[in-house]
Every structure is written in C-alpha cells, then in structure tokens.
C-alpha cells in the first residue's frame, strides 16, 4: 500500500514546482475543466473542483516520496514495512484503509507491506469533515480521467490533446482498432499475449534468445570468479545468485496458469459496464493470488510487452516476446546485429542483479537482504561514483544536465551489458565490430521535442537515448579500433578517463 499516482507525476513537484511541472499543471487544469464541462458542470463549479482537487493532492504529496528519493539506494529498506491487519487498523483509525483491504482480510490475508508510513499518517490527518469537498473532487478527477477515453470521440480528443501538451508532444490520433487492442491487452494481457505469440514468435527464437542469455550468464560467472575488488564472501554470494537466476524468455511454457474462461460480461452493458465487470473479476483473482502460496513460475508481464527487465524480488531476467522484433532483435540478423542490440540489453539486465539500487539488496531467492560487505559496497561505490560524475557533466539542453546520481543504476547497467557482449565477441572469429556498434546505435534512435527532453531528464532513470549510444561506446577500445577514432576526434576519450565497473 502506498500513495496514488499524482497528476504532476512526481510528488516533489508539489514541494517546489519546476518549469516542466508548471506546464503539466496548466495542461491538467484545462483538461479537467473541459471534461467537467462535458459532464454538465458550470465554469464556476469546474474551477472550484479543480482548486479543491489540487489543494488536497498537494497536501497528500507533501507526505509522499518523490522521484529523487524513490531512486535512492536506501529506498528499498524504507519502503519495506510489513504490517498485520491489526497494526494497520491502529495506524489508520480515521482513513478507511481496512474497508479497502476487507476482501483480503476476509480471505485470511494478514500480512501487508506499507510502503510509506508518513503518507498513511497524512491520510488520517486529512480525512476530516472539512476536507470532504476535496475528496469528492479527487474522486471526480479519477473517475473522469479514468473513463473519458471510452465515452465518446470528443472526450477522447480532450484526453489525447492534453496528455502530451505538458511535455511538448503533438499527440497523434490513434486508429480505433489500435485503441481497442490496447484496451484488450490491458484487461486480458495473457490471453492477448498468447495470440501475439502464435502470430509473431517461433520456438526457434525463444531457444536462440535463451541461449544468448545463457552465454551472457557464463561471461558474468567468469568475471565474478576473476574479480579482484570483491571480497570472497560477497563473491560467493554473487555466484550463488547468478547460478539461481530465473530466465523468462518470449512466453510462458505453461499457459494454463492464465485462464479467463470464468470471466463474464453483462448482457446489455456498454463498454464501461464491461470494463467494470472485468476489473471486479481481476480484483477477486488478485485476492485469490494473495491467499495462495507464491508461484515463482508466474509471469509478471505480458508477452506482447516491448521491454526487458530484471526482477529483484524473484531474481529473474525477463525478455518478453514484444521486444523480439524491430531494431531490438532480428531473428534472421547476424550474430553481431543480435549481440549489439538485444545482447547488450540482456547483459544490462543481468548487471542489475548486482547493482547498488536493486540487485545488491536482494538475495538469490528474491528476499530483501543486503549480502554485500561494507568494504565491497565502498569499493563498488568508488567505481560507480566516477560513472555518475561523468554523466553529470553532460549538458543536454542549455543549463539542463543529466542527473548522474539519479541515473547511475541504468548507466552502470549499460556499461555492464556492452562489456559483457564484447567479452563474448572475443571468442568469435572475424567478429564485425562496426556492425555490432551500429546495431546498438539503432536501438536508441529517437526524435523528441526540447520540452520532452527536459521532461525526461526529470523523470527518467535512464540517460537520454543518444547518450546511451555514444557515451557507452566511448569506453571501449574496440570502438576506437573499428572506426579509426583518434585523439582529437569528437568521440575520443583518453584511456585513463574511460569508465569501467564490471
């Protein structure tokens, strides 16, 4: 349990608003008022509702963790606060938290994780008669923004126009078929995933990518065994963690775990009725899952998702089918193309298993447990601080720099991923390094407005795409040899200044 999402995305914006935050606030206000007009409210009523909503949201945000603290190394410990139902009832005497949790407690669940105790204390402080209008306004905002895209074309257009206005994006009108797909994919994720896999992914691709993951794991095993700055105790735990890494590639082996056959839609309902029925059923399944033993074979993301990630709570690397296409992966591509795109991403995700913000705080079974010695953590920090400082010196827009500390987990993982694949390349005769590096660059090609770039600098834990391409290759001699880069060239970085962690 923790705070809801905020209209300005980041709780810190309510404490000291930035230019990006102000643009987003202005856009949200116009959008909300237009939706209220469509719902039959007068201009005066709409203005009052916005003011009440934003005032309450500001109060809640004051006691909530923002993006900066949320990316800190110690956030995992801060956010792990197991509580029984009785303890939560004592902590929340006024705000009706136990009513919200009643389906779980009725089912016998008696262990909950409270991520932000200060937020819950604040909710109890705010849950008074004098704030009733604020809570009403908050509920109206959630209801309208959550359903407007399904009501009619005019409401959808309002949502589309203002969702991108804050960051300078010109939103395209999506075809109805795509909107329908996205809705179905969100509500019936694994059912749509099975259809996607049957149409676009072969067993051969799953097998080939799994083999690439295993090759990357073998490189890491060798590097950990030969590592000179980790102590024996930490190194042993790291190897245990690597040996128990769960690998999920493309799609589940057992589809029977994802059954929608007992879902039923109202006979005469519209789209809102259908969605409410599906969500109610999905919620009951969440309760059932909370009551049952943890199934570590269960996929936490749908196969059609275009992403890859490391999951620390079950020590797994996840490569869904959705990323196995386009510039990320060509099943008919050369080994250099595959290693330079998906291969580096795989190495990146494995690296997260040993980083400061995630992997080093969870053991081989996915339990929150600091398995590093203080000496090894200090040695690791010395290396990663150099990476953060280098990125922090890069000016993306006039006066706007990369937040080196905020992005450090991802920048170190990028370096680890490329280093891993280049180590693998050493064993391949005639390896084409130019193709390898070009494949990496294609992954990060991007067009965006300056407003979007500024917005992403504030909220994204990754460095901008062009830096992920250029800064990483600068650190490896193979890049200099492949393209004849010499001292004095724009991409040249002196050997003593190059970054290396793993």
TrEMBL record:
PROSITE patterns found in the cross-reference section: NEPRILYSIN
One of the record's GO molecular function terms:
metal ion binding
Swiss-Prot/TrEMBL GO biological process terms: protein processing
Q: Which Pfam families would you find in this protein's record?
A: Peptidase_M13 (PF01431), Peptidase_M13_N (PF05649)
GO CC: one term?
A: plasma membrane
Which keywords, in A-to-Z order, does the entry hold? Hydrolase, Metal-binding, Metalloprotease, Protease, Zinc
Q: Report the residue ranges that make up the Peptidase M13 C-terminal domain in this protein.
A: 307-498
User: InterPro entries annotated for this entry?
Assistant: MetalloPept_cat_dom_sf, Peptidase_M13, Peptidase_M13_C, Peptidase_M13_N
Q: Does the keyword Cell membrane apply?
A: no
Q: At the top level of its lineage, which domain of life is listed?
A: Bacteria
- Where is the signal peptide, in residue numbers? none
Boundaries of each Peptidase M13 N-terminal domain copy? Answer: 2-252
Needs which cofactor? Zn(2+)
For this UniProt entry, which segments traverse the membrane? none
Protein family per UniProt: Belongs to the peptidase M13 family.
PANTHER family (UniProt xref): FI17812P1-RELATED, ZINC METALLOPROTEASE FAMILY M13 NEPRILYSIN-RELATED
By what name is this protein known? Answer: M13 family metallopeptidase
